[in-house]
Amino acid sequence: MLCTNPVQSVEKTFQLTRADKDLLSKPEYDVQAWCMLLNDKVTFRMQWPQYADLHVNGMPVRTINRPGSQLLGLNGRDDGPIIKTYTKDGINKICLTGCDPRIFCIGVRIVKRRTVQQILNMIPKESDGERFEEALARVIRCVNGGTATDNADSDSDLEVVADFFGVNLRCPSAVDFTIPFF
């Protein structure tokens, strides 16, 4: 690794209960590691630090499909690796090292896979709700914190990224773990 930036590292534990593992025994559920750049100009974008090195319970996990030195552009996205095969009942350990001066936040969450048809079925038909143009303007206002024309030329593509996952209200920390990466 040829990096002139400071090396940052974090090591944290997270717990998967027997109930979590029972849920994860179903094929549509997985455990995903995620990472986001704090204060990213592209909201809700998953992104790993430069030269990211992730380990779960001592096992190396590939985080990116780009050269470690390459930064993401405005339209770039990283994926969150599925780490279910590296987890166990009880206490698990996640370690992330990166050579990047920026500040990131990492986490672990239980995710449910959906088919494209399931996702399409969740979207209300235009005849059942607001018109597409109105909905798009509302989403842009929510994401940008202003009018649809504010910052309109900041990106050549119009893209909305959303994330949905269930949280057990009895123990929300058992589902979504947020670990600051300093």
UniProtKB/TrEMBL annotation:
Domain of life: Eukaryota
GO cellular component: chromatin
GO molecular function, one term: SUMO ligase activity
GO BP: protein sumoylation
PANTHER family: E3 SUMO-PROTEIN LIGASE SIZ1, ZINC FINGER MIZ DOMAIN-CONTAINING PROTEIN
Protein's name according to its UniProt entry: Uncharacterized protein
The species this protein was found in: Fagus sylvatica
